[in-house]
Structures are given as structure tokens and as C-alpha cells.
Design brief:
Length: 453
């Protein structure tokens, strides 16, 4: 049979794809609150089994979200193995009042399906499942060995993915990895990502007094908010450069090939600014500098700052404590543990030894070499399915890609159908049905071309 048969099956099976995605969306699976995790894992297993993909639920220890594992062995070509990495957990849906429909409704309106997880990551997951199903239904086989690793803690930092990869290393063994997602730009071109930035998430806090006090006492009692602001201000300059000693020490510059790829990446600055309602970028970056920052710029971002009274109206108090949550985006060669120690050393050297530091989690960055043969396979499939594609040296976001590269020694590439303005992690998240179809076909083509490689 020819490759056209699975692709035609995708066309005729879109109603079932949407229905199955709605079922997954309607099962809440918020890892931050441990809401529906077990139920969703079982539902994902049921979905795999119903699609002809034998599956099982893998466990590490009590209290850790299970991994759903699926595997189909090729009858004709069992020498090559492709692994799909996805996750079934989602971000919290709050604030609920900003949703037009209930966040777990799976409401379909025109070309869009709404709901938490519709894009990130249940929509992407269903495209992988339906691509494999299309082959099994039309040919009775798959072009290469297929494996699924679907975790339930990605949205909280994949805290146990290293332990899973170590324990089940032989089971997860593969030649290449298709990552959990891939963005599609405003001109409907898929962005093929060759890497992801790392992350160090910390909490800094100061406790000055045992309770909030009347603000008139600010002449005698130190305000912890001011103290914390002074400490945070030492971390970076107004242009975004991180001022911590040796923060960039191990970082290597872009290669000539990287810069060639980056320079060719389209980036609509006007559209981007309009979408977010901003007038300029950090340090007034433009053109190539803006692109380079997205791909390989380290960040020090204040994710939240809390102190004192933040309700409506006025309340004249002097807060007893202050807290700030900061996420650092890391780039290749930055070790999260080493960077955390540098942060601690920095605060101490600047006279802020009284600042308490809590480390939540850290992930190293990872990149696949643009010369890897698998890159061409994915790009050819994307061009055929979408019409054209864009090669991206590294995604601006973070995921546990480094763990897969380290433990499985397999290149990882991001490709998918998440429209870049589909409001992931925000109210009214949605997936475009036309992009779900194109992505499913693209996955079919990747399997076919990889099997022949």
C-alpha cells in the first residue's frame, strides 16, 4: 500500500479525532493540584488501546504521577525506533471567570476546539496517536517501531522524568524523539524546533517582623518589600543582562550554521507587538538581535511579587514579610545546580545574606545538531504537509529535553500544530482543527520517511 492510504484515513477520520480530543479535555488533569491525574492516565491508556497501540501504566513510587507507555513493533522494519514524548497533565484553569465556556468543556466553535489542554498537550498527543492508528487501520503495520512516553508532571517541572528514564531506560530505548509540541506561526508555517532552553525556578523571601504593622511605624521597622526590591535589582540591568558573577562563563557563541538558520527565521515584530499590546522589546531589540534573544538569550524574570495588602482600596500597613518568585531561562552549558550556587554567592556578596532562597526545580538546556539527518526527514515531511516550514535552532520555552538526550542518547525535534497565539496556559486556550489535521498527516509522513531512511 502507498503512503496516500494513511493520509486519506486521516481526512476521513477527523470527526473521531476531534471527539477523542474532547474526551481527553473533559477529563481535568491538573498536576499542580493533583487533580484527575490517575483518571487521565487511565483514559490515555484506553485511548491508545482503542487505537490499536498496546499500552501499560508505569509507576515509580507512591505519590508520583504515572507514565503511560505505548509500543507498536514494525513487522517489516524493526531496526529503527521512533519515540513520541508527550504529557497528559495541564496547567490550572484559573481564573475561571475569564473563560467564555467552562475550561474543560471541549467546546467546538467553527475551526477551533476550546479547553485547557486543547493545544498543550492533549491536542498534540492525539495527532501522534491518530497518525499511528491511520497506519494500523490502512496497512496493518507501521513503517518503524513506535513508542509513546506520556508523562503527567510536565507542567510542574517533570520532577521525576530522570528517575523514570533511568528505571525504564531499556524500555524507552529509541533512535529519535519527536518532542511534545511544535508551534505554527501566523502564516501557518510549522516551526521545527531543534532545542529548548533550560530553567531555574527560585523563590526569594525576607521576614522582618512577626506580623504586619501600622505603616506609621515605617520610621522604625524595616520594610521587607524594599529590602527584597533592592536585592532583586542587583540581579540584572535594565537591558536584561544578568549581573551574577560567572553566569555566562560556560556559554559558547552561536555557530556559523546556527546564525545562518536564525537569520532566515521569519519573525513578524509588528504582529508580535500587536498581539501582546506592547510598543517595544527589552533593550529595544530589533531584527536579528530579537531573533537571537528568543533562541539563545538567558533571562531573569520576576514571575510574581507578593507583600502587604493587594486588595481593593487603601490599607496603610507595613508588611512583615515579602516574597518574589523568579524564573531564569538557561541556555546550553548552563548547569542549573551551578547557576543556583552562583545566585546564592551573589546575594551573599552583595550583602543580602538575610534573603532566604528556595530552589523549586532546574532543567538544563538541550539542542539537536542542525546537521543531524533526522532534521531533514522532519523538514521534508513538514513541507509536504503544511506547504512550507521554518527551522528553529531552539525554542524559547523549557522542557525536559536534556534528560532525554542524556539518558537515551537520541536527538529530539519539536514539530506540531500549536498555533503560536492559541492562548496556552491562559483562559480560552484552543486548538485549530485544520492544524490538527495537517500535523497528523505530518507525523504519518515522518514515520514513512524515517522507516525508509
Amino acid at each position: 500500500m502507498t503512503i496516500l492510504n494513511p493520509l486519506k484515513h486521516v481526512d476521513s477520520n477527523m470527526k473521531n479525532l476531534v471527539s477523542d480530543l474532547q474526551t481527553l479535555i473533559r477529563q481535568p488533569s491538573v498536576s499542580a493540584k493533583n487533580e484527575g491525574i490517575e483518571e487521565c492516565a487511565k483514559l490515555v491508556k484506553k485511548t491508545l488501546d482503542a487505537s490499536g497501540i498496546p499500552s501499560e501504566i508505569l509507576r515509580l513510587k507512591k505519590g508520583v504521577a504515572p507514565i503511560v507507555y505505548g509500543e507498536v513493533k514494525s513487522k517489516k522494519n524493526n531496526s529503527k525506533t521512533l519515540l513520541f514524548y508527550n504529557h497528559y497533565d495541564v496547567q490550572p484553569a484559573e481564573p475561571f471567570d475569564l473563560w467564555d465556556d467552562p475550561p474543560f468543556s471541549g467546546q467546538v466553535i467553527g475551526n477551533k476546539i476550546f479547553g485547557r489542554g486543547s493545544s498543550d498537550d492533549k491536542g498534540e498527543l492525539i495527532t501522534r496517536i491518530k497518525a499511528v492508528e491511520a497506519y494500523l487501520k490502512t496497512t496493518g503495520d507501521v513503517p518503524c517501531n513506535i513508542k509513546f512516553l506520556i508523562e503527567g508532571e510536565e507542567e510542574t517541572g517533570s520532577a521525576h522524568i530522570d528517575d523514570y528514564l533511568k528505571k525504564y531506560r531499556k524500555k524507552f530505548g529509541c533512535d529519535e524523539v519527536i518532542w511534545e509540541f511544535g508551534y505554527v506561526d501566523s502564516k501557518n508555517r510549522p516551526i521545527i524546533g531543534l532545542g529548548m532552553k533550560g530553567l531555574l525556578f527560585v523563590e526569594l523571601s525576607i521576614k522582618e517582623s512577626i506580623r504586619d504593622a501600622h505603616s506609621s511605624l515605617a520610621v522604625l521597622i524595616k520594610n521587607p518589600a524594599w529590602r527584597l526590591i533592592e536585592a532583586v535589582k542587583t540581579l540584572r540591568d535594565s537591558n536584561g543582562k544578568i549581573l551574577i558573577k560567572d553566569w555566562y562563563r560556560e556559554v559558547k557563541p552561536f555557530t556559523k550554521k546556527d546564525l545562518e538558520i536564525i537569520s532566515k527565521e521569519p519573525f513578524d515584530e509588528k504582529f508580535f507587538k500587536k498581539e501582546y499590546g506592547i510598543k517595544s522589546f527589552v533593550a529595544d531589540k530589533k531584527g536579528l538581535d530579537a531573533k537571537k534573544a528568543l533562541v539563545g538569550g538567558a533571562t531573569c524574570n520576576i514571575a510574581g511579587f507578593v507583600s502587604g495588602y493587594t486588595g481593593e482600596g487603601a490599607k496603610t500597613i507595613l508588611p512583615g514579610n515579602a516574597l518574589v518568585k523568579i524564573d531564569f531561562r538557561l541556555i546550553p552549558k548552563m548547569d542549573p545546580k551551578k547557576q543556583a550556587q552562583r545566585l546564592k554567592n551573589h546575594l551573599k556578596s552583595k550583602g543580602f545574606a538575610d534573603v532566604q532562597i528556595k530552589i523549586f526545580h532546574g532543567e538544563a538546556a538541550a539542542r539537536t545538531n542542525s546537521s543531524d539527518p533526522f532534521v531533514s526527514i522532519v523538514q521534508e515531511a513538514a513541507d509536504q504537509s503544511f506547504g512550507s516550514s521554518i527551522l528553529n535552532v531552539s525554542n524559547a520555552g523549557t522542557g525536559p529535553m536534556h534528560s532525554f538526550v542524556e539518558h537515551l542518547n537520541a536527538p529530539c525535534i519539536s514539530i506540531g500544530g500549536t498555533y503560536m497565539f492559541s492562548r496556552i496556559h491562559s483562559p480560552n486556550e484552543y486548538a485549530r482543527i485544520d492544524l490538527l489535521k495537517k500535523t497528523t498527516k505530518c507525523i504519518c509522513l515522518i514515520m514513512e520517511k524515517f522507516g525508509k531512511f
